[in-house]
Amino acid sequence: MKKFIIPVLALLALASCTAKFDEMNKPTTGLTMDSAQPMYIFGRTLYNGSSNDHQRNFNLNDDMYAHYFAQGLGWTDFWRYNAGWGDIFWRDFYTDRLQEYWLIDEICGDEDHYRCIKAANDVWNVVLWLRVIDRHGDAPYFDAEGKFGAGKGTTLPYSKVEEIYADLIKRLQADATALGSTAGQWDFGAYDFLFNNDWNQWKKFANTLIMRLSMRLSGVYDNHKKDFAAAADACFDSPSDYARISCDTGVWGDYYDRTFNDWSNTFTNCDFMDMMNGRNQGYLTGVVDPRRDFFFLPGTEAATAGNSNWDGYPFDYTSDTETTVVSDHGGNKSYARLNMYDKNGFFHYSGAGNENLSWCYSSYSEALFLKAEAALRGWISGNAEDLWKQAIKASMDEVSMFVTRSGGNKTIGAAEKDAYIAALPSFGSSKEAQLRSIMIQKWIALYPNSVEAWAEQRRTGYPDYASHVLTYPAVSASSGVSVGNIIQRIPYPQNEYNTNAGNIPADHSDYNAKNMEKGIFWSLNGENGTQSANAAPKNF
Fold first, then answer.
1. Separation CA 220–CA 524 (nearest Å)
2. Which of these, 235, 243, 384, 518, could form a disulfide with 367 (CB 3.0-4.6 Å)?
């Protein structure tokens, strides 16, 4: 992967975006449409779309909601919301990322040699759109003519999630078509940090996203099952197919190299570590997951009686006990740690520009898990259990491949894969039980893509609280959910209530209501329904 070096001129021009698209290129830098280059802008939107305020945007929210990580920041009320932190991604998306998208689109115009650049720009924009609507729900998207028009400086009404999804699928289909013919195409040079100008990879990514979006709506309707089936023939199809952006720790960020290693704020989560250790009470295997040693290392200090240095950090304490917990356990040192410290570590970084540490967006194993569920639902042919096993093995292959590409020498052999699968609980006889098996393993395979893992947990209810795969956290009166309910969304930013209140959906007009427990259109209980952690999920 290339280092994230973006020309100063382009950075300065894009650092101070104004409220209106047509004013972006006017003042002091001298950057004009004639001198702007789409590759520099694309490098910026890839990097900042991944890295900007990761801790406040995602680590303090999605990382915890997915039960991948825990916190030691005084953030003891697991489902409390800090608007000054959690609003940042929405703000940056609408003020910066969308303007970068439209600027690339305008620079490229209708010139055919820019066709693949425009398509890749659009695919990445869809990724960012999902992070907005999957977290918040309905959002400003369509203009007065019913076309995608957000980010052009005009205040827009809120569009329904299902309508945005349908349009995103159409956009991805057009992108996949555009990426199918690559002769004479210009590329991003050194600034395609995702696929290094491999247009076939971009096409596969677009199709994998179509599958993701189509399946997200499956609990509501199967309108997009044909879209899914068509995309499934041209999606990621090898462990070497993955959408990850490697970090360059020579550039400032606040990813896990900072939050875990430098600041000791991010800890491993007890539920996920119990799963890695084969001791999760809701899904007992009795064997260590072969991926564990790639992801984690044991703690360096003595553990308390009855525990081990492979345990994850608890989050079921109250604010009165947190300081004691952190102090007694030496911060994160007596708990399992992220494996950043050797070349076989999934989170290893060296400052050399080829870090294993990366932002994760999609993979071959995700495509296989989607196919397993599609087979279960009758959308495609195939055996759901066989596809499920293939997906588990693919996840292990991906982990091995990702660390060996940067100089690691550790892999997971066929015998280890088979032994792990043989130890798993039964795949199940009912569709509900089989979906549970698929989703629990998908949760493991998505790690550490907490944005997608949290979305899938809300969509299906799995991994679930009712069978104690997940531990229900401490919830106080200041939480955004009622005790007993699970978190379903992130509230709309306070600035929306200040500037666009008339367009906010009526059910969310009260900023102080328990909005975080109100379901999104595609969630298990549908638009604005609540989901009890004590109720077993029911998808069929």
1. 9
2. 235
